[in-house]
Structures are given as C-alpha cells and as structure tokens.
Design goal:
mainly alpha, 2 strands
C-alpha cells in the first residue's frame, strides 16, 4: 500500500484557532484514503507546541527522528510531483 507524506503545511497566524489545521488534516486523510494510502505522516518542528497539541488529538506521535542527505536532491523530484498533485486535489476539494 502507498503512503502519504506531507512535506510542508502551515496555518498563518491571522487564522490560528479557527480549526483549520484539523480541517486540512481531515481533507488530506480523505484524499489519501481515495488513493488507498495505508498511512499519512508528517514532520513538525519541536517548538511548535500548539500544533503538536492538535496533532496529538488526531494522530499518533512516533519515535522517529528525521535525517537528511541534501546532496541526493534528485530523489525529491518525484516526491514533489506527487505532493503537488495531492495539494491540487486537497485545494480543489475545499473550493
């Protein structure tokens, strides 16, 4: 089964506290389900405490840490195409 990895998302400060993070996550989950993804995951910065409180309500925190090898940028080209298609699908479902 495929997985869905969310690279970057954010809610701008002007609209924080309006439940948009949960709506965004639910929209991503719905889209991932339509594409038969087995798992949806994302990374967050350790100092994003408010966001983590929301994430803790709807997902399970794992024990993994992220490591990067920046010289392997070619591997990310295909990922970006998939992410852009997912973003388009999510955004069109909100409109």
């Amino acid at each position: 089964m495929p997985i869905c990895k969310i690279y970057i998302w954010c809610v701008v400060p002007d609209v924080c506290g309006q439940g948009l993070t949960k709506k965004l996550i639910n929209s991503v989950y719905s889209t991932a389900h339509l594409h038969e993804c087995d798992c949806v995951y994302w990374l967050t910065h350790e100092n994003k405490n408010t966001a983590q409180q929301v994430y803790d309500q709807i997902a399970q925190k794992t024990q993994f840490m992220q490591y990067r090898m920046l010289e392997h940028r070619k591997l990310h080209i295909a990922d970006k195409i998939i992410v852009l298609k997912l973003q388009q699908t999510v955004l069109s479902s909100w409109m």
